[in-house]
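Q: Predict the assembly, please.
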Amino acid sequence: MDFPARGIRAVDGVDLEVRAGEQVVLLGRSGAGKTTLLRALLGGVPAATGSVRIGGRNPWGSPAEVRALRRSTGVIRQGNDLVLGVSARLNALMGTASQWRLRDWVTALRGRVPAAYAERLAALADHHGIADALDARVHELSGGQRQRVALCRALLPGPTLLLADEPTSGLDPAAAQTVVAALRATEGVTLVVATHDLGVARAFPRTVALREGAVVYDGPDFDARIAERVYGVPA
Amino acid sequence: MTAPETVLPQGPPPPVPRRPPPPAGGRVARWGGASLVVLVVAWSVAGTDIGLGSLLEGRQAGLRMLRSFLTPDLSGEFLAVVASAAVETVQISVSALLLCVLLGLPLAALIAGNVRAPRPVAATARVVAAGLRGIPELLWALLFVATVGPGPAAGVYAIALHGAGLLAKLCSEQLEAVDPAPVEALRLTGASRSATALLATVPQARSGIASLVLYQWECNIRAATIVGLVSAGGIGQDLVISLKLFRYSEAGTLVLAIVAIILAVDFFSRLVRRRLGAAS
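A: Predicted assembly structure:
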């Protein structure tokens, strides 16, 4: 695949296959093409040549195909993309809004969890350690808690694919560790994490390293020698 | 790869480029423009007959009115009339605010670019809002007095329509100013435009919109005191009657009441807006 972003060939000749349920890290410096590749998976960047298929679906296909793809894909983006001023619970529920009926809307806006999602949200919040934080407003949460709420929002609809773009960006090491652990614990979901952080990459079983839009490494056992190839400096 | 070393430039600093002299044609245009502005201002002043002469001419009537204003009519009977008019003024402002919100906020949502309403709908909403706020309250009041008849209802409709247009514009700007990241995040989940607007856009703009609604109430109370000048209810209607009958003591009482109502509403509104975290 080639993706010319704003006239620049941001991703060049990438040939990548991710198996269902696999956890993969896209590693590279800023501008290496990680975010472009993730955006391509959501149909956000059109390819100049080549193609993308997710479970056989085309992210640049018909509106119905794109909608179905988006509903089966969870996304966590770099920085904070939760809605401030409302509760963490409502934020966590928002990933399912496309499936809400009128009754669900009323329940959610009254600060409760619609029955269809109550059990799953409770299990997810418990699993990721934010059960006590659901009543809090987003601005009252720490960075790590916010990212885990974003993770619950992405996982609640039961996606088959989870895309995380720099999920530990701006977090202190301890908070970053909790977010990485939460991502590692997402079993049964295909996970693609884009990061520039070597520490994050080491926590996952497969690393795809990008440099200037091209894959320079794809495999397990990411070590300092390979890091030098990615960053141009010894890790 | 190592970071490249910073190389400092050697030798004397480069000469600062001199500002080129303005072209002769530009100077003529500037003087021509300034002369035109002076001419327009002078023509306007001459046409409106303002100046010390007209002020001196009306000084006797002005002093007589001022003296009466300083001795307001505080009789129980008239104070009851003032209280009733003041209550009606507040009622007009609140009822108009309700209609402003019911009409203005949906228009704001349709106008806001990040809500992504269908283009023809957004364009129509923009034209409607511009039309509503483009006509001043007094003109709306004249139209409604002619259609629904004199009284507070005409005042409510007049203030509501103008205010809805204003609120639509200001609230749409609030909606457009929200952080786009949560909006985009929700859109990526496949949520519809209306769901995205309701869950991600509106909550972020909520306190700003609440502040604008309160500010609109302040504007409404001011407007409610003047729509009475054209028989559209409120305290202004009593003020006109008193002035037409040369009862300046009564007018003084009414003016004092107007100032008191406006200050009270301003104070209350600012108090609430400050609690919402908005600049007063």
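The first helix of chain A runs from residue 34 to 41. The beta strands of chain A are 2-5, 8-12, 23-27, 73-76, 161-165, 190-195, 206-211, 214-219.
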